[in-house]
Amino acid sequence: LDVDSVWKYVRCDRTPGAWEKLIHGEADIIFVAEPSAEQKASARAQGVDLHFYPIAREAFVFVTHKDNPLTQLSEKQIRDIYSGRVNNWLEVGGNDARIYPYQRPKGSGSQTIMLAAVMGEDKLRKPLETESVHDMIGLLRNVANYQNSANALGYTFRYYATQLHHSPDLRLLAVNGIEPTIENIRNGKYPYTIDV
User: Fold this and answer.
1) What 8-state DSSP symbol labels residue 107?
2) Considering the chain, what is the average pLDDT of its residues?
3) What residue ranges carry the coiled-coil annotation (predicted)?
4) How many helices (H) and strands (E) does the chain have?
5) Better-scored residue on pLDDT, 97 or 169
6) Mean pLDDT highest for which of 62-71, 119-128, 158-167?
């Protein structure tokens, strides 16, 4: 097949839509992050047996504006911010300013990873309407361009922040002092290294 004719067989969708199409027999294979608990339950209810085959290694990263003086957060600090226990950058070593922690919608690949790999037993705080973003590009734009600039925090996959929508206004934060470099992803040192 030539490249142009392949596109009649390939569909691009967001993670929730891709899982829905697979579960309902409209797709044979999808390349996405792991399913949410709800997506797994939907597959069981439809009698669909899901098989997972990791093909790559990715990093789940936290981003802030380049003007934020912080360069790293600990895993606990991230959970404290996203659970609502910490609301001011001063509490985690930054400036005395409110934190605007952006979230993705329920069922999105990044929200699923946030819940499973980051939050553990902690519950996510309910986001303000302006802190919930429908798509990944929107989240990155909001963190890079938020009117209070350095006070925004978001999460994404490294590929989105460094390749798909690279912005000079974003800073990837180290976690526990470990930067999400290709080497630290490859060797698994970065805490939120994900096989996808």
Assistant:
1) T
2) 87
3) none
4) 8, 7
5) 97
6) 62-71
pLDDT value at residue 148: 47
7 domain-assigned: yes
Question: Which H helix or E strand runs over 157?
Answer: strand 152-157
How distant, in Å, are the alpha carbons of 31, 44, 86, 116, 167 from that of 38? 18, 10, 28, 13, 33
For residue 137, CA distances in Å to 16, 101, 154, 159 come to 16, 16, 11, 11
Summarize pLDDT for 28-51 with one digit per residue, the tens: 998 887 888 899 999 999 999 999
Q: Residue 33: give the domain boundaries.
A: 3-45
Q: What is the pTM of this model?
A: 0.81
Domain count, the chain: 2
What is the three-class DSSP state of 84? coil
Answer positive or negative: Cα dihedral of 105, 107, 113, 117.
positive
**Pair 18, 27: CB distance under 8 Å:** yes
The CATH number given to whatever domain includes residue 183 is 3.40.190.10
One domain, residues 76 and 145: yes
